[in-house]
Amino acid sequence: MNLMPVPFLTNRHRYRPLLNRLATLFGGMDRAYAAVADQYGFRCNGCVDSCCLTRFYHHTLLEYLYLVEGVRALEPDLRRTVQKQALTVYTEMADADRRGEALRIMCPLNRDGRCMAYTHRPMICRLHGIPHELRRPGGEVVKNPGCDAFFNQCRDSGTTVYIRFDRTPYYRQMAMLETELRRKTGYTDKIKLTIAQMLVSTMNGTYEID
Ligand code: SF4
């Protein structure tokens, strides 16, 4: 498993305006999500089959830097706990991969059902719950039916109407910001990292969150 060397991260002022624009984008997306969730009457109250158990991969440098910023803001003891947990999760995932086994393991940022970097969580973490759709460049529309908790709540409340939540404009805006960031930093490698891998990469000598 390759963790990325990110020496330019010490030059945070260079990409700060882009992170601010990402925060604005996420804010708009969260409001749009909340408006649709309200129409459904859906509330995420945590559940046994937490989406934070899913192994999501994140692909943008922008989200990586934004998450690191959120972790950096944690109170030192909590930050150390989260980093220790990230190392455990990272190791268990790597061991399971070597054995060829599927592993569902809680994200190291989830503590007692709460995300410790909630305001800085990546885009995919903000989409879980209600149904959403994405228009691919060729025009094909890919629909996601929502999570099991959504399905159960809506079945119980008798809600059957589909309310459109199109994530396409948010993905496009994030892709544009990512392009700008890559141009600014000169970083060209592809990124495919779990949250645990992101956090471990900040501890292994390439970058310290202090
Ligand atoms: S970053 Fe936060 S919301 Fe996303 S999987 Fe981890 S704990 Fe859950």
Attribute tags:
two-stranded antiparallel sheet; binds iron/sulfur cluster
Overall geometry: globular
- Total count of strands: 4
Along the chain, the helix and strand elements come as HHHEEHEEHHH
Q: What's the mean pLDDT score?
A: 88
Largest sheet: 2 strands, antiparallel
Q: List the ions, cofactors and other small molecules found in this model.
A: iron/sulfur cluster
Distance between the termini: 24 Å
How many structural domains?
Answer: 1
Share in helix: 40-55%
- Low-confidence stretches are none
Strand content: 5-15%
Describe this structure in words.
Helices cover 50% and strands 6% of the residues. The protein has 210 residues and is mainly α. It has one domain (7-201). Strands 1-2 form a two-stranded antiparallel sheet. It has a two-stranded antiparallel ribbon with strand order 3-4. Strand 1 and strand 2 (114-115) form a beta hairpin. Helix 1 (12-40) packs antiparallel against helix 6. The radius of gyration is 18 Å and the shape is globular. The model has no long low-confidence stretch (mean pLDDT 88). Bound molecules: iron/sulfur cluster. The site of iron/sulfur cluster has 9 residues, from loops. Iron/sulfur cluster (SF4) binds at residues 52, 107, 109-110, 115, 117, 121, 125, 195.
